[in-house]
Inverse folding.
């Protein structure tokens, strides 16, 4: 990899900024000062330092975010705040994107990465990766409604959802909550599923994706890197 590309990709600024940094003599390869920005680096055999600190190259990064309501699951938007806007500047050079989407008013677990292969695997309908949500409904669910949701419901004239799993938490007039697990992600799917059984979603939060659960210590809008175990669980999904 070229030296300027390495430094730019590891957060030392634009290519222009990096060239200035290299010309200043702050960059060394194996303890030897270098001033050519197009120098080639063997990442396995050579050590690069900037002002004496070793540069560690990372191709991919994986974040877990507790998405707050009112924020778009997108990389950019001219008018509204996106989940990428919530990230620190230190993440900017990774070109992160959300893995799938949560509706603007939906909160909870959202993964962000620059690993397109893993993102594709997690979102592929063929993989059947389970996603569990906390759903608060306007009206109680009858047993026939649960049977329909678990068998699949028509959310338009041409599409019937795959079987879901419903776990009742509270089912009273004042509080109707369920855990709903689905293996697909159609547009506004859970809201449309509720409508199919003559109900309405009034609160929606994603709790898990595959075998990775939302960290309860993350406040709304907070995020952290996935642990190695969590990453392995996702890759296994």
């Amino acid at each position: 990899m070229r030296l300027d590309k390495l430094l730019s990709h590891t957060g030392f600024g634009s290519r222009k900024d990096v060239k200035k940094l290299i010309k200043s003599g702050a960059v060394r390869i194996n303890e030897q000062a270098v001033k050519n920005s197009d120098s080639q680096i063997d990442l396995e055999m050579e050590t690069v330092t900037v002002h004496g600190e070793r540069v560690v190259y990372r191709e991919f990064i994986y974040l877990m975010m507790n998405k707050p309501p009112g924020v778009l699951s997108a990389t950019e938007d001219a008018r509204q705040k996106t989940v990428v806007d919530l990230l620190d500047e230190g993440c900017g050079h990774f070109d992160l994107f959300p893995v799938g989407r949560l509706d603007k008013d939906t909160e909870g677990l959202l993964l962000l990465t620059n690993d397109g292969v893993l993102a594709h695997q997690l979102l592929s309908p063929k993989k059947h990766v389970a996603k569990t949500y906390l759903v608060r409904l306007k009206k109680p669910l009858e047993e026939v409604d649960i049977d329909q949701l678990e068998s699949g419901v028509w959310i338009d004239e041409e599409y019937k959802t795959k079987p879901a799993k419903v776990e009742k938490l509270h089912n009273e007039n004042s509080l109707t909550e369920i855990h709903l697990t689905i293996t697909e992600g159609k547009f506004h799917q859970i809201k449309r599923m509720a409508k199919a059984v003559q109900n309405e979603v009034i609160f929606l939060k994603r709790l898990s994706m595959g075998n990775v659960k939302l960290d309860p210590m993350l406040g709304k809008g907070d995020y952290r890197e996935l642990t190695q175990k969590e990453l392995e669980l996702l890759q296994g999904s």
Remarks:
- The first helix runs from residue 3 to 9.
